[in-house]
Specification:
Blueprint (H helix, E strand, L loop, with lengths): L30 H18 L6 H17 L2 H22 L7 H19 L1 H5 L11 H25 L4 H4 L10 H32 L3 H15 L7 H22 L3 H23 L2
Helix pairs in contact: 1-2, 1-3, 1-8, 1-9, 2-3, 3-4, 3-8, 4-8, 6-10, 6-11, 8-9, 8-11, 9-10, 10-11
Length: 288
């Protein structure tokens, strides 16, 4: 570093400059941290393509979390903590004889809450959350968000009409309710599901990948692949076609996150797509 000049390679999370509303790239991870982040991306993408959770996945996640913590690789710790609680949650729930009546939203919400409980309790983790920023509402951002929302809605409807997928796993998550409550339930589902998935993929995962690969197209591509793999078995859409669709969707959401410098725009675009999903499911229920 040149004498007399300030080191700007690290993020000042207490800055009061206008950039406080924008996501700033995390410090680059050391080689070992990068290896851990890429290893867990590979492990969990392969695990997501399997129909059942494996205790080996949970064990590997916990082991890598411990290694990342020992090495003090903060971005790897964030990612490994989320992966560890996600992989371990089904086995913990079984051990405590707690079985939620519906897989959604508990399968995603419980790991997020466990992750937040640990992260907010540890100052170094709490201060290194750099992605919780709303971003900027520029005209280009609004246009990209609107185009993504419209295209995703059309693609979801065409996928449903062309393939006639089995909707029973998704319909099982819909409680019995009066007709007038469906719009409110759809809004609640769309906002919550989009928030949870954006928290995971465009939040924790993408920040870790930015630390490992730099804030470029590589991290957008890898997080989109993980997003697609997560939908392969149980998602809407699912299967190979669903994986491809959600991969492209993940690339667009990642690009919106990068372009806007925040999480608000991708969350809203995602919520619009989820509203289409709920409309299809609600239509199936009401037409029976």
């Amino acid at each position: 570093m040149v004498p007399g000049k300030r080191n700007t390679s690290r993020i000042n999370i207490f800055s009061t400059a206008p950039s406080r509303n924008l996501i700033e790239p995390p410090p680059r991870s050391a080689p070992f941290g990068t290896i851990i982040i890429l290893a867990v991306a590979l492990i969990f993408s392969l695990a997501a393509l399997r129909a059942h959770a494996s205790p080996w996945t949970a064990g590997a996640a916990i082991l890598l979390f411990v290694i990342a913590a020992i090495l003090r690789e903060i971005q790897a710790v964030h990612l490994m903590l989320l992966c560890a609680v996600t992989a371990a949650a089904p086995f913990l729930l079984t051990a405590f004889h707690f079985a939620p009546s519906h897989p959604w939203p508990s399968s995603t919400l419980i790991p997020i809450l466990l992750y937040l409980a640990v992260t907010l309790a540890v100052p170094s983790l709490r201060k290194s959350i750099l992605w919780m920023r709303p971003g900027r509402p520029g005209r280009d951002v609004l246009l990209l968000t609107a185009v993504t929302a419209v295209l995703s809605g059309i693609a979801l409807y065409l996928w449903y009409r062309a393939l006639h997928p089995d909707l029973s796993p998704h319909l099982a998550n819909m409680p019995t309710m009066p007709v007038w409550l469906f719009p409110l339930a759809g809004l609640g589902f769309s906002l919550l599901n989009a928030a949870m998935e954006e928290f995971v993929f465009r939040g924790v995962v993408m920040q870790a990948l930015d630390g490992a690969l730099g804030a470029g197209n590589a991290s957008i591509t890898v997080q989109a692949w993980l997003f697609g793999a997560a939908h392969y078995i149980h998602g809407f859409p699912n299967g190979v076609s669903g994986l491809v669709m959600t991969f492209v969707y993940g690339v667009l959401l990642g690009a919106i996150r990068r372009r806007s410098g925040g999480m608000l725009a991708p969350w809203l675009a995602h919520a619009c797509g989820d509203m289409v999903v709920f409309t299809i499911l609600a239509g199936t229920v009401l037409c029976k």
